[in-house]
């Protein structure tokens, strides 16, 4: 861990009542890095990101966030009766500090530049959009707060492969052009390891493996457990 990490998690323990969901989890995200968090259902991935973004409070351990962080929540959580444009504007409430003016806070134009497919649906109700379009709105809404770290909980869930590839392309572009760090929570480990340079494997509340995505993908254990390879 380095003092300049954007996110630094140490020995995190999170409980739901008597059940321990995270047991001594440590993780770091450097500025501008794309990091994957993979693992089976119930491993604690959502618990970890919800603790990173401050939704959950740990029983012990520490979370240090040295950057603006925004989350694309699992299940996207659109305001279905509101337009795409209004959904985006609602993302601006997360913005704080660093002297951004009110006007700038409500400026959706850069989101439309980054995600141009949203332009032609901007006045449509979000509830009427396809799953892929809604996921794009959810990403756009998180971007309204100009995050330096974007945390995405289940990018690919319920989406067709072509749609996922398109979203992945946009994330890569965002990372390359804006230097936004991305933490990608994925059940689709293949996608996550392809997209991110580094990864953590979470199993039953513990980090079971971590390292360069390429090394992890080359590991027979990981391949067998997560990549559907014999
Ligand atoms: P999924 O991909 O299914 O969302 P996950 O890896 O994100 O799984 P979590 O949702 O973080 O896993 O859950 C970790 C553990 O904590 C699981 O055993 C789950 O049943 C439990 N858990 C999650 N939320 C709660 C809650 N609100 N109350 C009690 N237990 C919970």
From TrEMBL:
GO terms for biological process: L-amino acid transport. It comes from Streptomyces flaveus. Belongs to the ABC transporter superfamily. GO terms for molecular function: ATP binding; ATP hydrolysis activity; branched-chain amino acid transmembrane transporter activity. Coiled coil: none annotated. The lineage of its organism: Bacteria, Bacillati, Actinomycetota, Actinomycetes, Kitasatosporales. This is ABC transporter ATP-binding protein. Residues 7-229 form the ABC transporter domain. Keywords: Amino-acid transport, ATP-binding, Nucleotide-binding, Transport.
